[in-house]
Amino acid sequence: MKLIISLVLMCTAQTLAYTIPSVRFEYPTARGFRASIPDTPGLQMFAFHARLNKPFSKFEEGDYAEDVTAPDENGLWTYDTNKPALPNGTIIYYWVYVQYEDAGYWLTDKKHTIIRSKATVAPKPATTTTTTTTAAPCGRTLTTFNGGQSTCAGKLIFEDTFEQGTLAPKWQHEVRIPLDTDSAEFVSYQSHPENSYVTAGRLVIVPTLVTMNADYTDERIRTGELVLEGCTSPTNNPYECQRKAALATILPPVVSAKLNTKHYFRFRYGRVEIRAKLPKGDWIFPQLFLQPHENFYGYADYASGQMWIAHILANRMLFARDGKQIDGHRLRGGVLISNTGPVRADFLRSNVKDDHFGDQFHVYGLTWTPEQISLTVDGFQYGTVRANFRQHGQLQNLTQANLWNAEAPLAPFDREFYISLGVGVGGVKDFPDFSVTGPTQTPKPWNNTSPKAEYFFYQNRNTWYRTWTEPEMTVDYVRVYAL
Q: Which end of the chain has less Cβ packing within 10 Å, N or C?
């Protein structure tokens, strides 16, 4: 991970305030290791990232990683694992991030060579007559899943590394035409194998022009009809399942895919990690979301909320009317509690870097507790959302706010949510009017309030489609941990 310049300057200016002590390594058992630093008043987080026998080239997530948010009973901030078997000579390459009094400090390019003495692990007895197995303690956690089932603190409760080569049974496709309840993106979500597939242990989701199908001519897009078999409209809305083209209304010019775990896995409170390479191309955006399982507070206007794990406007160069750069160099995450006006972006946080987020794989994270939602990229926390959404919504005259649980400040984010992965194109919410793209400063070809927005977008396809050299989103793994 490349740090933004402002963060580097901040950390450099404060190096005198705190120095990270040397990490202490221990081997309590024949497997695994323990890494720790002593507690100091003002410490807020100890993030440890390690891998075996392979140096880090950048701030990568690591094979053994955790954000430790509290010291243990011995006054140590400790990362503990019993997973790897570690013979003498194994090299642990690691880096550390520490948050101290709201400032960040780094310990990088470190390594530790394992040398165990015979006294490190208690010897086995010469003879054994009985065997007693003691289960690992199950720490209490606020995390629940699949209808309120309990689990243990820190436990991995969902994982897909896509090594099995199939999406079933964990994922199901959405089959629908998005409405204004979302972004009214200019696509139909379908289950075609060319739009979503697993290859080499990775999930690929890619948008395509509908005219790539020989059945769809330019005339059919302007005058034909689309009926989606197996439509998955959550409200059985016929407008999500079929469309008749006429006048200003055309058929969706792009086909894409969106998958979710709604019928397999959902959870309340936890930590999500998704390693993915995001798309690149004009007017494309990735969707790494958490969505409400039951829409308990309502469906329209995000009444039940939506969480963004990662989102970019995938243009290689895109500038808003005021000159602000808003393309794929800017990562956004956070929550939506309304689809209208500026309120839509009130609780989105951003991180800007020199490289496009579609240039390489990154690990995008979201940690959800009853008090706050924090956002990370490659282990770096770039944003936190902490608010009483009911009070904020009432001040903004949001009707749904009156339904949110008054006893849960984070409501509507107090119910179970499921994972959603997709790629959208266009729409009338996230790409601001009067923005310009590319080195030629080409104007955005549609206006968000125009009834012909989708038509104008389609008419400009010879310009934007040339930029779709890497329109796919590739997902390496998805993991969810209990708090």
A: N
DSSP line for 35-90: EEEE--TTEEEEEEEEEESS--SSS---SEEEEE-S--TTSEEEEEEEEEE--TT-
Q: In sequence order, which residues have a C-beta less than 8 Å from that of residue 399 and are 6 or more positions away?
A: 301
Question: Could you tell me the two tokens for 410?
Answer: 């984070």
Q: Which residue has the tokens 């266009």?
A: 426
Q: How many Å apart are CA 255 and CA 188, to the nearest integer?
A: 5
Q: 368 with 359: CB under 8 angstroms?
A: no
The terminus-to-terminus CA distance of the chain in angstroms comes to 25
Q: Is 6 exposed, middle or buried (0-12, 13-18, 19+ CB in 10 A)?
A: exposed
For residue 461, pLDDT beyond 70: yes
Token pair of 375 as six digits:
């956002």
Are the C-beta atoms of residues 319 and 326 closer than 8 Å to each other?
A: yes
**468: Cα within 13 Å, side-chain hemisphere:** 18
Residues 8-23 have pLDDT tens digits of 334 344 444 789 999 9
Helix H or strand E segment including 222:
helix 218-223
CB of 285 closer than 8 Å to CB of 423? yes
User: Distance of CA 29 to CAs 66, 80, 317, Å?
Assistant: 20, 11, 52
What pLDDT, in 10s, does the model give residues 194-252? 999 999 999 999 999 999 888 889 899 999 999 999 999 998 999 999 999 998 899 99
3-state SS, residue 108: strand
- The predicted pLDDT at position 4 comes to 39
Cis, bond preceding 41 (omega within 30 deg of 0): no
In a 10 Å sphere around its CB, with 0-12 CB exposed, 13-18 middle and 19+ buried, how is residue 451 labelled? exposed
Strand partners, 79: 35
Q: Do 201 and 166 form a contact (C-beta atoms < 8 A)?
A: no
In this prediction the pTM is: 0.74
E strand or H helix at 98: strand 91-100
121 confidence band (pLDDT: 50, 70, 90): very low
For CA atoms 158, 164, 168, 173, give the dihedral sign: positive
Which residues have a Cβ under 8 Å from the Cβ of 72 and sit 6 or more positions away?
A: 78
Question: Rounded distance, CA 348 to CA 332, Å?
Answer: 6
Give 127-157 pLDDT, tens digit per residue. Answer: 444 444 556 689 999 999 999 999 999 999 9
Q: Which whole-number Å values give the CA distances from 182 to 122, 133, 291, 464, in the listed order? A: 59, 52, 12, 23
Strands (E), 369-466: 373-377, 380-385, 417-425, 436-437, 442-443
Strand partners, 363: 275
Instruction: Give the alpha-carbon dihedral of 297, 298, 301, 306, to 10 degrees.
Output: 60
